[in-house]
Amino acid sequence: MAGSELLLEYLSRYFPILVFVFVALAFGAGTLLISYFVQPKYPEPEKLSTYECGSEPFSDARMPFPVRYYIFAMLFVIFDVEVIFLYPWAIVFNKIGLIGLIEMLIFIGLFLVAYVYAWRKGALEWD
Amino acid sequence: MDHIFFFYFAAVIAATSLLVVALRNPVYSALSLLIMFFHVAGLYVTLHAEFLAAVQIVVYAGAILVLYLFVVMLLSIKSEERYHSQLPVAGLLGVMLCTEVILLFIQSRTGAAAPAAADPIAGPGNTEMIGEALYSTYLFPFEVASLILLVAMIGAIILAKKDINEPVQ
Protein backbone atom coordinates (compact mmCIF):
# COMPACT_ATOMS: atom_id res chain seq x y z
CA MET A 1 0.00 0.00 0.00
CA ALA A 2 3.06 2.27 0.09
CA GLY A 3 2.68 3.10 -3.60
CA SER A 4 -0.93 4.07 -3.10
CA GLU A 5 -0.10 6.40 -0.21
CA LEU A 6 2.70 7.95 -2.25
CA LEU A 7 0.33 8.61 -5.13
CA LEU A 8 -2.19 10.16 -2.76
CA GLU A 9 0.44 12.42 -1.24
CA TYR A 10 1.55 13.38 -4.74
CA LEU A 11 -1.98 14.03 -5.95
CA SER A 12 -2.82 16.03 -2.86
CA ARG A 13 -0.43 18.67 -4.22
CA TYR A 14 -2.94 19.09 -7.04
CA PHE A 15 -5.76 19.80 -4.60
CA PRO A 16 -5.62 23.61 -5.22
CA ILE A 17 -6.04 22.95 -8.95
CA LEU A 18 -9.03 20.74 -8.18
CA VAL A 19 -10.51 23.56 -6.10
CA PHE A 20 -9.99 25.97 -9.00
CA VAL A 21 -11.70 23.57 -11.42
CA PHE A 22 -14.69 23.23 -9.10
CA VAL A 23 -14.92 26.99 -8.52
CA ALA A 24 -14.87 27.56 -12.29
CA LEU A 25 -17.55 24.94 -12.90
CA ALA A 26 -19.68 26.14 -10.00
CA PHE A 27 -19.45 29.74 -11.20
CA GLY A 28 -20.69 28.85 -14.65
CA ALA A 29 -23.43 26.49 -13.51
CA GLY A 30 -24.39 28.65 -10.52
CA THR A 31 -24.81 31.82 -12.57
CA LEU A 32 -27.09 30.05 -15.03
CA LEU A 33 -29.11 28.35 -12.28
CA ILE A 34 -29.56 31.48 -10.17
CA SER A 35 -30.64 33.57 -13.17
CA TYR A 36 -33.00 30.79 -14.19
CA PHE A 37 -34.71 30.75 -10.76
CA VAL A 38 -34.61 34.47 -10.04
CA GLN A 39 -35.64 35.92 -13.40
CA PRO A 40 -39.29 36.91 -13.95
CA LYS A 41 -40.88 34.83 -16.68
CA TYR A 42 -43.48 36.47 -18.94
CA PRO A 43 -43.23 34.51 -22.20
CA GLU A 44 -44.87 36.29 -25.10
CA PRO A 45 -44.45 35.40 -28.78
CA GLU A 46 -43.05 38.82 -29.63
CA LYS A 47 -40.57 38.59 -26.77
CA LEU A 48 -39.46 35.07 -27.69
CA SER A 49 -38.68 36.02 -31.29
CA THR A 50 -35.04 36.37 -32.28
CA TYR A 51 -35.08 40.15 -32.35
CA GLU A 52 -37.75 42.09 -30.56
CA CYS A 53 -37.14 44.93 -32.98
CA GLY A 54 -35.23 44.85 -36.25
CA SER A 55 -35.43 42.56 -39.26
CA GLU A 56 -35.66 38.80 -39.05
CA PRO A 57 -32.48 36.91 -40.01
CA PHE A 58 -32.86 35.67 -43.58
CA SER A 59 -29.96 33.21 -43.80
CA ASP A 60 -27.92 30.91 -41.61
CA ALA A 61 -25.19 32.54 -39.55
CA ARG A 62 -22.89 29.56 -40.16
CA MET A 63 -21.48 30.49 -43.52
CA PRO A 64 -17.95 29.54 -44.65
CA PHE A 65 -15.28 31.69 -43.06
CA PRO A 66 -12.53 33.18 -45.21
CA VAL A 67 -9.51 30.89 -45.38
CA ARG A 68 -7.22 33.67 -44.15
CA TYR A 69 -8.35 32.88 -40.58
CA TYR A 70 -6.51 29.59 -40.98
CA ILE A 71 -3.14 31.37 -41.19
CA PHE A 72 -3.68 32.95 -37.79
CA ALA A 73 -4.69 29.65 -36.20
CA MET A 74 -1.65 27.95 -37.71
CA LEU A 75 0.73 30.73 -36.64
CA PHE A 76 -0.72 30.50 -33.13
CA VAL A 77 -0.14 26.73 -32.99
CA ILE A 78 3.44 27.06 -34.20
CA PHE A 79 4.46 29.82 -31.79
CA ASP A 80 2.63 28.01 -28.99
CA VAL A 81 4.82 24.96 -29.57
CA GLU A 82 7.89 27.20 -29.63
CA VAL A 83 7.00 28.67 -26.24
CA ILE A 84 6.48 25.17 -24.82
CA PHE A 85 10.12 24.37 -25.60
CA LEU A 86 11.23 27.43 -23.64
CA TYR A 87 9.85 26.15 -20.31
CA PRO A 88 12.18 23.14 -19.75
CA TRP A 89 15.04 25.22 -21.16
CA ALA A 90 14.45 27.96 -18.60
CA ILE A 91 14.36 25.43 -15.76
CA VAL A 92 17.66 23.73 -16.64
CA PHE A 93 19.35 26.90 -17.86
CA ASN A 94 21.83 26.99 -14.96
CA LYS A 95 22.95 23.43 -15.61
CA ILE A 96 23.46 23.50 -19.36
CA GLY A 97 25.04 26.94 -19.47
CA LEU A 98 26.44 28.50 -22.64
CA ILE A 99 25.77 25.48 -24.88
CA GLY A 100 22.12 25.63 -23.91
CA LEU A 101 22.03 29.32 -24.78
CA ILE A 102 23.54 28.64 -28.22
CA GLU A 103 21.08 25.78 -28.80
CA MET A 104 18.16 28.01 -27.98
CA LEU A 105 19.54 30.84 -30.11
CA ILE A 106 19.66 28.47 -33.13
CA PHE A 107 16.13 27.29 -32.32
CA ILE A 108 14.75 30.81 -32.02
CA GLY A 109 16.79 31.91 -35.04
CA LEU A 110 14.93 29.40 -37.20
CA PHE A 111 11.65 30.76 -35.81
CA LEU A 112 12.84 34.24 -36.62
CA VAL A 113 13.29 33.08 -40.23
CA ALA A 114 9.69 31.84 -40.18
CA TYR A 115 8.50 35.10 -38.65
CA VAL A 116 10.35 37.24 -41.20
CA TYR A 117 8.94 35.03 -43.98
CA ALA A 118 5.39 35.48 -42.69
CA TRP A 119 5.92 39.21 -42.36
CA ARG A 120 7.47 39.67 -45.81
CA LYS A 121 4.78 37.57 -47.49
CA GLY A 122 2.11 39.69 -45.84
CA ALA A 123 0.60 36.83 -43.83
CA LEU A 124 0.25 39.17 -40.85
CA GLU A 125 -1.71 41.71 -42.88
CA TRP A 126 -5.45 41.41 -43.10
CA ASP A 127 -5.93 42.68 -46.67
CA MET B 1 -7.56 3.90 -4.09
CA ASP B 2 -5.11 4.93 -6.79
CA HIS B 3 -7.26 3.12 -9.34
CA ILE B 4 -10.15 5.51 -8.74
CA PHE B 5 -8.39 8.36 -10.54
CA PHE B 6 -7.40 6.13 -13.43
CA PHE B 7 -10.90 4.73 -13.86
CA TYR B 8 -12.49 8.18 -13.67
CA PHE B 9 -10.14 9.65 -16.31
CA ALA B 10 -10.27 6.54 -18.52
CA ALA B 11 -14.08 6.40 -18.42
CA VAL B 12 -14.47 10.08 -19.31
CA ILE B 13 -11.85 9.77 -22.08
CA ALA B 14 -13.63 6.76 -23.58
CA ALA B 15 -17.07 8.39 -23.34
CA THR B 16 -16.03 11.74 -24.81
CA SER B 17 -14.02 10.02 -27.58
CA LEU B 18 -17.19 8.16 -28.55
CA LEU B 19 -19.09 11.45 -28.51
CA VAL B 20 -16.52 13.02 -30.84
CA VAL B 21 -17.39 10.55 -33.60
CA ALA B 22 -21.04 10.00 -32.66
CA LEU B 23 -22.31 13.57 -32.40
CA ARG B 24 -23.73 15.00 -35.61
CA ASN B 25 -22.85 18.65 -35.01
CA PRO B 26 -19.09 19.02 -35.58
CA VAL B 27 -18.84 21.93 -33.12
CA TYR B 28 -20.22 19.69 -30.35
CA SER B 29 -17.69 17.05 -31.43
CA ALA B 30 -14.88 19.59 -31.04
CA LEU B 31 -16.13 20.58 -27.58
CA SER B 32 -16.25 16.97 -26.39
CA LEU B 33 -12.73 16.66 -27.77
CA LEU B 34 -11.83 19.57 -25.48
CA ILE B 35 -13.17 17.67 -22.45
CA MET B 36 -11.19 14.65 -23.59
CA PHE B 37 -7.95 16.69 -23.82
CA PHE B 38 -8.41 17.93 -20.25
CA HIS B 39 -8.97 14.43 -18.94
CA VAL B 40 -5.94 13.10 -20.83
CA ALA B 41 -3.98 15.85 -19.04
CA GLY B 42 -5.38 14.54 -15.73
CA LEU B 43 -4.30 11.03 -16.66
CA TYR B 44 -0.79 12.33 -17.34
CA VAL B 45 -0.74 13.91 -13.88
CA THR B 46 -1.53 10.55 -12.26
CA LEU B 47 1.36 9.07 -14.29
CA HIS B 48 3.76 11.73 -12.87
CA ALA B 49 4.14 13.38 -16.27
CA GLU B 50 3.37 16.95 -15.23
CA PHE B 51 5.13 18.59 -18.13
CA LEU B 52 3.21 16.48 -20.60
CA ALA B 53 -0.02 17.41 -18.81
CA ALA B 54 0.78 21.10 -19.13
CA VAL B 55 1.69 20.63 -22.81
CA GLN B 56 -1.55 18.75 -23.31
CA ILE B 57 -3.56 21.69 -22.00
CA VAL B 58 -1.54 24.53 -23.57
CA VAL B 59 -0.97 22.99 -27.01
CA TYR B 60 -3.83 20.57 -27.55
CA ALA B 61 -6.68 22.20 -25.65
CA GLY B 62 -5.42 25.70 -26.40
CA ALA B 63 -4.10 25.65 -29.94
CA ILE B 64 -4.90 22.42 -31.80
CA LEU B 65 -8.56 22.58 -30.84
CA VAL B 66 -8.77 26.17 -32.10
CA LEU B 67 -7.33 24.89 -35.38
CA TYR B 68 -9.98 22.15 -35.54
CA LEU B 69 -12.77 24.62 -34.85
CA PHE B 70 -11.41 26.94 -37.53
CA VAL B 71 -11.38 24.08 -40.04
CA VAL B 72 -14.98 23.21 -39.12
CA MET B 73 -15.99 26.83 -39.66
CA LEU B 74 -13.94 27.20 -42.84
CA LEU B 75 -15.62 24.18 -44.39
CA SER B 76 -18.99 25.20 -42.95
CA ILE B 77 -20.04 21.65 -42.09
CA LYS B 78 -23.47 21.80 -40.52
CA SER B 79 -24.16 18.17 -39.85
CA GLU B 80 -22.27 15.10 -40.93
CA GLU B 81 -24.40 12.44 -42.62
CA ARG B 82 -21.90 10.82 -44.91
CA TYR B 83 -20.06 8.18 -42.97
CA HIS B 84 -22.61 5.37 -43.05
CA SER B 85 -21.08 3.75 -46.13
CA GLN B 86 -17.89 3.19 -44.17
CA LEU B 87 -19.60 0.72 -41.84
CA PRO B 88 -18.08 -2.56 -43.22
CA VAL B 89 -14.51 -1.23 -43.20
CA ALA B 90 -14.98 0.37 -39.79
CA GLY B 91 -16.47 -2.86 -38.42
CA LEU B 92 -13.55 -4.93 -39.68
CA LEU B 93 -10.99 -2.50 -38.21
CA GLY B 94 -12.92 -2.38 -34.94
CA VAL B 95 -12.91 -6.17 -34.59
CA MET B 96 -9.17 -6.25 -35.29
CA LEU B 97 -8.42 -3.54 -32.74
CA CYS B 98 -10.62 -5.20 -30.12
CA THR B 99 -8.79 -8.51 -30.63
CA GLU B 100 -5.47 -6.72 -30.20
CA VAL B 101 -6.60 -5.00 -27.01
CA ILE B 102 -7.91 -8.28 -25.55
CA LEU B 103 -4.67 -10.08 -26.43
CA LEU B 104 -2.61 -7.31 -24.85
CA PHE B 105 -4.79 -7.43 -21.76
CA ILE B 106 -4.34 -11.19 -21.36
CA GLN B 107 -0.58 -10.88 -21.82
CA SER B 108 -0.28 -8.05 -19.33
CA ARG B 109 -2.16 -10.11 -16.75
CA THR B 110 0.31 -12.97 -16.97
CA GLY B 111 3.39 -10.76 -17.42
CA ALA B 112 5.58 -9.34 -14.72
CA ALA B 113 4.59 -6.23 -12.83
CA ALA B 114 5.80 -2.91 -14.15
CA PRO B 115 8.98 -1.55 -12.53
CA ALA B 116 8.35 0.89 -9.72
CA ALA B 117 8.50 4.53 -10.75
CA ALA B 118 11.02 6.92 -9.25
CA ASP B 119 9.96 8.80 -6.15
CA PRO B 120 7.79 11.58 -7.57
CA ILE B 121 8.02 13.84 -4.53
CA ALA B 122 11.67 13.75 -3.50
CA GLY B 123 13.27 13.27 -6.94
CA PRO B 124 14.04 15.99 -9.48
CA GLY B 125 11.09 17.54 -11.22
CA ASN B 126 9.60 16.10 -14.35
CA THR B 127 10.20 19.27 -16.37
CA GLU B 128 13.79 19.43 -15.12
CA MET B 129 14.51 15.89 -16.28
CA ILE B 130 12.91 16.55 -19.66
CA GLY B 131 14.98 19.71 -20.03
CA GLU B 132 18.23 17.94 -19.19
CA ALA B 133 17.52 15.13 -21.66
CA LEU B 134 16.21 17.40 -24.40
CA TYR B 135 19.08 19.89 -24.36
CA SER B 136 21.90 17.36 -24.11
CA THR B 137 21.06 13.90 -25.46
CA TYR B 138 18.25 14.86 -27.82
CA LEU B 139 19.77 18.09 -29.05
CA PHE B 140 19.52 17.23 -32.73
CA PRO B 141 15.82 16.20 -32.69
CA PHE B 142 15.12 19.43 -30.81
CA GLU B 143 16.69 21.55 -33.55
CA VAL B 144 15.00 19.44 -36.24
CA ALA B 145 11.65 20.15 -34.55
CA SER B 146 12.29 23.83 -35.09
CA LEU B 147 12.95 23.17 -38.78
CA ILE B 148 9.75 21.11 -39.10
CA LEU B 149 7.72 23.91 -37.54
CA LEU B 150 9.32 26.35 -40.00
CA VAL B 151 8.26 24.10 -42.89
CA ALA B 152 4.73 23.82 -41.45
CA MET B 153 4.45 27.58 -41.24
CA ILE B 154 5.66 28.17 -44.80
CA GLY B 155 3.26 25.49 -46.03
CA ALA B 156 0.31 27.05 -44.21
CA ILE B 157 1.11 30.50 -45.63
CA ILE B 158 1.48 29.18 -49.19
CA LEU B 159 -1.79 27.23 -48.93
CA ALA B 160 -3.89 29.94 -47.34
CA LYS B 161 -2.48 33.09 -48.89
CA LYS B 162 -3.98 33.75 -52.28
CA ASP B 163 -1.86 36.65 -53.49
CA ILE B 164 1.39 35.07 -52.33
CA ASN B 165 3.44 36.25 -55.31
CA GLU B 166 2.36 39.84 -55.16
CA PRO B 167 4.77 42.12 -53.34
CA VAL B 168 3.55 43.80 -50.19
CA GLN B 169 3.22 47.55 -50.41
From TrEMBL, chain A:
Molecular function in Gene Ontology: NADH dehydrogenase (quinone) (non-electrogenic) activity; NADH dehydrogenase (ubiquinone) activity; quinone binding
InterPro entries: NAD(P)H_OxRDtase_bac/plastid, NADH_UbQ/plastoQ_OxRdtase_su3, NDAH_ubi_oxred_su3_sf
Catalytic activity: a quinone + NADH + 5 H(+)(in) = a quinol + NAD(+) + 4 H(+)(out)
Membrane topology (UniProt): Multi-pass membrane protein
EC number: 7.1.1.-
Main location: membrane
Entry keyword set: Cell membrane, Membrane, NAD, Oxidoreductase, Quinone, Translocase, Transmembrane, Transmembrane helix, Transport, Ubiquinone
Subcellular location: Cell membrane; Membrane
One Pfam family cited in the UniProt record for this chain: Oxidored_q4
TM segment ranges: 14-38, 69-90, 96-118
Domain of life: Bacteria
Recorded GO CC terms: NADH dehydrogenase complex; plasma membrane
Quaternary structure and partners: NDH-1 is composed of 14 different subunits. Subunits NuoA, H, J, K, L, M, N constitute the membrane sector of the complex.
Family (UniProt): Belongs to the complex I subunit 3 family.
Described purpose of this protein according to its UniProt entry: NDH-1 shuttles electrons from NADH, via FMN and iron-sulfur (Fe-S) centers, to quinones in the respiratory chain. The immediate electron acceptor for the enzyme in this species is believed to be ubiquinone. Couples the redox reaction to proton translocation (for every two electrons transferred, four hydrogen ions are translocated across the cytoplasmic membrane), and thus conserves the redox energy in a proton gradient.
Name this polypeptide is given: NADH-quinone oxidoreductase subunit A
Species whose genome carries this gene: Nitrospira defluvii
